[in-house]
Amino acid sequence: MAKDTDTTCGAAMTPIPSAAERAEKLVESRLDEKGNRRSFLKIAGAAVAAAATGCGTGAPTSEEFFRQHYQKLTDEDKKRIFARIEEEVLATKGVRAHVADPPPMDGVQFAYALNLSVCNGSRRCVEACARENNLPDDPEMRYIRVLEMEAGSMDFEEATAYYEHDKVPAHDKFYLPVQCNQCDNPPCTKACPVGATWKEKDGIVVVDYNWCIGCRFCIVACPYYARRFNWSEPEIPPDRINPNMGYLSNRPRHKGVVEKCTFCLHRTRAGRDPACLEACPTGARKFGNLHDPNSEIREIIRSKRVFVLKEDLATLPRFYYFFA
Amino acid sequence: MCVALPLAGMGSTPPRRPLRTPQSRGRATRALSLLAGVLGALSLSACEEPEHLHTKLAPPSATGTIVILPRQSLLPTFPCSRCHDDRAPNPTERRLVEFHTQKVLLHGSAKGWCYRCHSQDNIDKLKLQDGTLVSFDEAYELCGSCHGDKFRDFKAGIHGLTTGDWNGDRQRRSCPNCHDPHNPRFPAMTPERPPAQPRTAPMHAADVSEDSDGEGH
Amino acid sequence: MRSMLRFATATTGAMIKGPRGYYVWLLFLSAWVVLGLMAYLHQLKVGLHATNMIDQVPWGAYIANFTYLVGMAAAAVMLVIPAYVYHDHDLHEVVVLGELLAVAVLTMCLMFVMVDIGRPDRFWHLMPFLGRFNWPISMLAWDVIALNGYLVLNFYITTYLLYTKFCGKQPERKKYVPFVFIAIGWAVSIHTVTAFLYSGMGSRPHWNAAILAPRFLASAFAAGPSLMIVALSIIRDRMKFPVKDAALNRLRQIVAVTMLINLFFFFSEIFTELYTFKHHAASMRYLLFGLKGHNKLVPYIWMAMALDVFAAVVFTTKKLYSNKRILMAACLSAVVGVWVEKGMGLVIPGFVPTPLGEVVDYSPSFTEFCVSAGIWAFGALLYTLLLKAAVPIELGKLRLNPGTPDEAPVEPAHHAAEPQEASR
Fold first, then answer.
1. Closest alpha carbon within chain A to C53
2. Are residues A134 and A85 in the same domain?
3. CA distances from B66 to B40, B57, B59, B166, C390 (A)
């Protein structure tokens, strides 16, 4: 399907009610529904809290200030926190979201493979990822970066991510999308002074957005330019919000924290493909479980001449490239 | 063994031709369903061909089935016999001027013409090199008979667009979904917009220049 | 404890009383501090968007200044080693002043880190046991221990020495000498750890060199003593503290050696990168010659090298360094030259080209400039206040019991060269 990139312009021109207005509307509708004073207070309190935090001042609530590392949260904590986030999204954006933290599946080690003979640089993956993961347009954040490479060379210095053509692929170029490689020996997790980023059991490297102190040492350490920082408060129009949220993946983030591709763990841990793979029009992207001997990814690694980027740095990426 | 042909959800491949929605309940659909039934019977007969001619896809992963999405019922000019039964096949190689005028063969060295792949005797079928007939849903058998490497990759799921769940049912697409057999090159596309320029570091022309001396100066 | 309270009030009193010129100086510095504070509040409100840092250049002026200042703090050891290890009497008298400089500079380092992180409200996450401290794997975790430990060490040593002197007593050797020796090793380690932050990054080939830590130390030990020469000269002139020429000369000798070593290390890096002309050299090419039309840093690095060379020449030529004016110029030249070469001239090229080959420029935004200037002013302010209290104590003018003479130092007969606290 051809992408109409003008839809974002249309969305931006629709006036978005302020958080306070939304909170008021929400309160009224809840009062009508239930007429219950206690739920009114609960929602009003949440809306006020959400308005205080979600509007770009960045001042944390006391719960946020004292919140422990994700790995120390109890199930009770998580229920409370996820409900809070859902309330905040509802109050500030009017969208009913669902936040969860699907655990890694047993016996699963994710890996990704990308067929460089077939990628045509359409950047459909970049935009699909942005929609799936609630990435803002202003300032623009994109997890995937597609490099247009000179035919016959793997030299990044001669490549550009900023190519603009009427049609792709352009003559004598090939295309190399780069995103987080979910390395087995990640330099970023070594660098983080507070342990806010770590590698999960299924291989995905995640970030606890409420633990990150924003020192950006992980960005310095990453050899693949895969990690992004929220230099200002990200704003996403309500109609572009993906309500299917993961606590460690695409739930709303705030300024001052680092984020990156998580192999769409809120999808892949439920058996679905990552958004980038689904959007790819040429079938260049392949994904699966390394432990499954019948998987496409295993067959690719077995039979194709796969390679990884910057192998000499011994990061042991889970993202393989091949020509087929 | 026939390849299963259930109708699963369509993926996001850009359609090469306009597709009819499977949900419409018009007379055309009922007629097509009848013909599909006829063809189903015919393809059953084709299934009696030797085992090795029919594609075995890679075994499904632990939980799902793999399906190659059907195309035949979505071809606008199918069944071909609707028109071709009225006329005798004309095997003279020529440029078509009355119908199918857009079908100019740009496939490889373009040797041969329509009847190289379309069966002269049964116009609703495709013809493999040894004369075996396959349906349009099994066009990959014909493509694969020359493009063996790609076919091998296709069977393993490495080549071609796959949709569905990595851990569940997956759908593949037959070759003509992306490669028009008459002009198979994958169509060029308009790319999405480039990334925003670095906020505080405006680009120079040299950063996106086409020419390179390999030294970065 | 009464005497401790008196110490606190007396030193505070000394800090807030002074001649008119002193107040003008304090006011001048405070104005910059307030400017920096306002700029920082703006940055807190809008986020680090207020700086010119971007994903391609995630560290900028703040961390460049931090890196430089860690070196300065380490350089206090260049006073301590001659004084305590080689029993250089002339330097012994000024060691406390050097350690106070380390205290002020370390405070600036910590402030530069605080203003750089995206979520300063989450600073407690860094604390061991309270938060989650990724030690020993994260070099930043090591740096937190190193810097805070060094600050505590220096603060303790200086406070102890000044307090005992204030009380008119001789300091007990066992209460400070072991810590001084620990501080010597610790000073080397703080700058080594900071260097390892950089040299451990495989993603940044410009830094991923074994020579980076030695280069850091050499440049720190060139710039630090140079600054000390300037500071001590000012202290001698303005505060009437008798700093011996021999002490300044010893510092000059140190810089003569370390600046030459620093230049040699830099030259060694340039050669290694450029002779092979491999892709890892792209950052060096960007720095020295510009890359793809981006050449913002080129004039600065060449200027820095010229300043370093000028300093080296002056420090090694008797005819030149005997001239006080030329010596001061050379000291400032070393301070500025190393700042450029090690701060912006090292941090920024590490990011250019990016790991994906992109070339960008960076220069600090107005906010970054104001915040940085504010922190420098704060450091100068802090050092001024510390000196304002310390110098009178050292000179014997500020005492717990003003009338009572100081305790005489004990002179062991067998070791005439033992370090002594000269009382006045």
1. A231
2. no
3. 20, 8, 8, 11, 81
Q: How far out from the chain centre does Cα C80 lie?
A: 14
Contact (CB<8Å) B201/C54: yes
* Of C345, C310, C306, nearest in space to C328 by CA: C310
A167's tokens: 């049609």
User: Is residue A144 domain-resident?
Assistant: yes
Q: Does the domain made of C2-410 have the CATH classification 2.170.150.70?
A: no
Q: Across residues A135-158, what is the average pLDDT?
A: 94
Q: Return the number of other C-beta atoms located less than 10 Å from residue A28's C-beta.
A: 11
**Is C121 within 8 Å of chain A by CB?**
yes
Q: Based on the domain organization, do A122 and A96 belong to the same domain?
A: no
In a domain, A284, yes or no: no
Q: Are residues A253 and A211 in the same domain?
A: yes
* pLDDT tens figures, B136-193: 999 999 999 999 999 999 998 999 988 899 988 899 999 999 999 988 999 999 999 9
Average pLDDT value for residue range C182-211: 94
Tokens of C355: 């790991």
CA distance C154 to A14: 60
Which chain B residues are closer than 8 Å to C289 by Cβ? 217
Residue A261 lies in a domain: yes
- Domain co-membership, A141 together with A234: yes
A262 is a domain residue: yes
Asked if residue A255 and residue A197 are part of one domain, the reply reads yes
Phi, psi of A107 (to 5 degrees): 70, 20
Residues of chain C numbered 198-227 and touching chain A (CB < 8 Å): 201-204
pLDDT digits (tens, 9 = 90+) for C77-93: 888 888 888 887 777 77
Do A166 and A256 reside in the same domain of the chain?
yes
- Of all residues in chain B, the one with the smallest CA distance to C364 is B200
CB contact under 8 A, A122 and B60: no
Tell me the average pLDDT of chain C: 91
- Rounded CA separation A213/A67 (Å): 13
- Does A140 share its domain with A197? yes
Last residue of a domain, one of A266, A296, A317: A266
Partners of residue B216 in chain C, C-beta under 8 Å: 282, 285, 291-292, 359
* Residue for token pair 């399907």: A1
Q: What is the pLDDT of residues A98-112, one digit of tens each?
A: 999 999 999 999 999
Q: pTM for this one?
A: 0.84
What number of CA atoms fall less than 13 Å from residue C395's CA on the CB side? 14
Q: What's the CA gap between C7 and C166, in Å, rounded?
A: 7
Q: What does the block give as tokens for A74?
A: 């109890």
**Residue A210: half-sphere exposure toward Cβ, Cα within 13 Å:** 24
Three-class DSSP labels, A199-216:
ECCCCCEEECCCCCCCCC
- Residue A172 structural domain: 117-266
Residues A77 and A131 in one domain: no
- Residue A161: its chain C contacts at CB < 8 A? 356, 358
pLDDT digits 0-9 by tens, A235-275: 999 999 999 999 999 999 999 999 999 999 999 999 999 99
Residue C8 has phi, psi (to 5 degrees) of -65, -45
